[in-house]
Amino acid sequence: MREPEAAWLGYWKKHQKPDGQKALEELDAMGWKIENPPKYYTVKCPCGSHARSVHLTPSNPGYFQESVRWAKRQTCMNEEEGQ
Fold first, then answer.
1. Which is the most buried residue in 16, 26, 68, 70, by most CB within 10 A?
2. Higher-confidence residue: 63 or 5?
3. Residues paired with residue 53 on neighbouring β-strands, in sequence order
4. DSSP per residue, 15-64
């Protein structure tokens, strides 16, 4: 059963934490595919070679931004930027 429309943004279920939602939006803007969680979100790079789980309730307060920084460090992202 699908959640009410207010709980959805784009094609993934809205994250319960504002920092988590912001990180998912940044990943989406970079072209990463976001899969809805049973326990974790899964984000996959545009080339399909890299993937990462994004927790729903991490204990590290910087976890969501670290997930975005990790995505930016992937080789396929650097090749697209011409680095």
1. 68
2. 63
3. 42
4. PSSHHHHHHHHHHHHTT-EEE--SSEEEEE-TTSS-EEEEESS-SSTTHH
| H or E element in which residue 13 lies | strand 12-13
* Radius of gyration in angstroms for the set of CA atoms belonging to the chain, rounded to a whole number: 13
- What is the distance between the alpha carbons of residues 55 and 47, in angstroms, rounded to a whole number? 22
Residue with tokens 């729903």: 56
- Please state whether beta strands 51-55 and 8-9 pair in parallel, antiparallel, or not at all (unpaired): unpaired
Q: How many CB atoms lie within 10 A of CB 35?
A: 16
Q: By the 8 A CB rule, do 34 and 64 touch?
A: no
- The SS3 of residue 12 is strand
Higher pLDDT, 1 or 71: 71
User: Where does residue 32 fall: left (phi above 0), alpha (psi -120 to 50 degrees), or beta otherwise?
Assistant: beta
Q: Are 6 and 12 in contact (CB under 8 A)?
A: no
